[in-house]
Specification:
This protein is of the alpha/beta class and 482 residues long. It has 19 helices and 14 strands. The protein has helices at residues 30-39, 67-73, 84-97, 108-119, 133-141, 169-179, 203-216, 227-237, 246-255, 280-287, 290-293, 304-316, 320-323, 325-339, 357-360, 370-382, 421-436, 454-457, 466-478, and strands at 54-55, 101-105, 125-128, 145-148, 184-190, 220-223, 259-263, 273-277, 352-356, 384-385, 387-389, 409-413, 444-448, 459-462. Helix 7 links the parallel strand 5 (184-190) and strand 6. Helix 1 (30-39) packs antiparallel against helix 16 (370-382), helix 2 (67-73) packs antiparallel against helix 12 (304-316) and helix 14 runs parallel beside helix 17 (421-436). The protein is globular, with a radius of gyration of 22 Å. Bound molecules: pyridoxal-5'-phosphate. Pyridoxal-5'-phosphate binds next to helix 4.
């Protein structure tokens, strides 16, 4: 395969960087892992990092930065207004995306807030390939709703389709016909579709969506937070782009949409976010809100040091040696698990390895949060912290009933250039052990349940004493070790 490095003969990833700074991590004994899970209310978000061995919670703000990014931080210009740092970042973004205007914001959800504030009216509908938690929350807060029009294959857990994040064009046409243009706030395409397993969107699909939206006058918004993995997949899976460089692919994608926004906690391996737009009217409407919610227009809630790191990180994102690292590591972990029969979402995408909790924990009812239970069990089994992406991550319906998720996943995110191959082997070993003992895992129920984004800080408890049984079995199988 062009441009991606593997050890000869095998699809065994090769790191295209060397490690020059490290952080010590702790591996607590299984009894202490069980205790800290209890203290965290069986919610992996509430664990203290000192108790975590391998932190696979997210790819957000935890990616390894390059020496050039750290060096750039030293030249940051602290001025409140008119900072040179802003102009440097703006120039990089304008060049990479070919857009006219850049509005800075403190992170991805802040961009969603500003975009929703301008484009969403009460009763309007935002169409999208698939929702992201914070996106949906901001649209709903503005009185709008969302409709997902992802390809059917996108919700098929085991698949060989190369672009499961693609929009279903028939569903798009049908929705426009049914709702009418005026009721549609915007169409949103999410790169590297997060909640369905980091699955990419093809350029050919984007072209088609863009053509339809332009013809009907519907604004097209592109969430580029997970762009780097998506670029890798376009280059390696979409034939006509095999010989096109990453920069040209990025420009072409951006040319198809009206607004690009991103979380720089993911894209560019820094922290922050921003909105790119070329239409002056839209720019002026969104600009009004930046000083109110984010900060003055030349920093938008970001630290100038992070902005410098971002400018360099974005340039580095245009390099296949850099952006191939996450997908090939995800693939390596998925392949280890598949070889032992553990159920994972396929094909391996970007972002992380996704365990299929529906199959893994088929004995646990969906209303007892099987993916959340699996997340707690994985931490007890190996000190590995993943994130529930299933019913727990949904919000209840207005009548208080559970909104059951389309998929019940445990995501083991792959922070960029952070995890080593022996750690991948360790994770696979513990997950395979858990799979063999899956009958021991039980359900969870809420003790404290917040109304909004409950997965972040809700507290739960196990139904029955299954965590103790799991620890007992672990000791039997592993003896005194670890
Ligand atoms: C993380 C993420 C966001 C939100 O970004 P934050 O910086 O965490 O606010 C939005 N969209 C997608 C696809 C994401 O992965």
């Amino acid at each position: 395969m062009s441009n991606v490095k593997f050890l000869s003969g095998e699809r065994f990833p090769l790191e295209m960087h060397k490690v020059r700074m490290v952080q010590k991590i702790n591996l607590l004994p299984v009894e202490e892992r069980r205790r800290s899970m209890q203290e965290a209310g069986f919610n992996t978000f509430l664990l203290r990092n000192r108790d975590v061995f391998l932190d696979m919670l997210t790819d957000s703000g935890v990616n390894a930065m390059s020496e050039k990014q750290y060096a750039a931080m030293m030249q940051a210009d602290d001025s409140y207004a008119g900072s040179e740092t802003f102009y440097r970042l703006e120039a990089v973004l304008q060049d990479i995306f070919g857009a006219k205007y850049f509005l800075p914001a403190h992170q991805g959800r802040a961009c969603e807030h500003i975009i929703s504030k301008v484009l969403v009216k009460p009763g309007s509908v935002a169409l999208m390939n698939y929702h992201f938690t914070t996106t949906k929350a901001h649209i709903t807060l503005m009185g709008g709703s969302i409709e997902e029009i992802i390809s059917d294959e996108g919700l098929n857990i085991q698949s060989t389709a190369p672009f499961k994040g693609d929009v279903d064009i028939d569903k798009l046409n049908e929705a426009i016909k049914r709702l009418g243009k005026d009721k549609i706030a915007f169409m949103r395409i999410e790169a590297g579709t997060n909640l369905v397993g980091g699955q990419p969107v093809s350029m050919s699909n984007m072209r088609e969506v863009s053509r339809i939206c332009r013809e009907k006058g519907i604004p097209l918004v592109y969430d580029a937070s997970l762009l780097s993995d998506n670029l890798y997949f376009i280059k390696t899976r979409e034939k006509e782009y095999r010989d096109v460089d990453i920069q040209s692919i990025t420009r072409e994608m951006a040319s198809l949409v009206d607004i690009v926004y991103f979380s720089a906690r993911k894209l560019g391996s820094a922290r922050g976010g921003g909105i790119l737009v070329s239409d002056e009217g839209l720019f002026l409407k969104m600009r009004e809100w930046i000083p109110i919610y984010e900060g003055f227009l030349t920093y938008g809630g970001m630290s100038v040091r992070e902005m410098e790191a971002l400018a360099v990180g974005l340039r580095e994102t245009m390099d296949m040696d850099v952006i191939s690292q996450t997908p090939i590591f995800v693939e390596a972990l998925c392949n280890e698990l598949i070889a032992e029969g553990a159920p994972v979402l396929t094909p391996p995408g970007g972002l992380g390895c996704h365990l299929d909790a529906t199959e893994f924990c088929s004995h646990i009812p969906q209303t007892q949060y099987r993916a959340g239970a699996l997340a707690a069990a994985a931490f007890i089994a190996g000190g590995v912290r993943g994130m529930e992406r299933g019913t727990l991550s949904e919000q209840r319906n207005d009548d208080g009933s559970e909104r059951l998720a389309d998929m019940e996943l445990l995501r083991l995110a792959m922070p960029k250039r952070v995890v080593t191959l022996s750690q991948i082997k360790y994770i696979a070993d513990r997950i395979v052990w858990l799979y063999k003992n899956r009958h021991l895992i039980g359900g969870l129920e809420f003790v404290e349940e917040p109304k909004m984004l409950r997965f972040f800080f809700g507290r739960l408890k196990p139904i029955g004493n299954w965590p103790d049984l799991l620890v007992e079995q672990f000791r039997k199988d592993f003896g005194e070790s670890l």
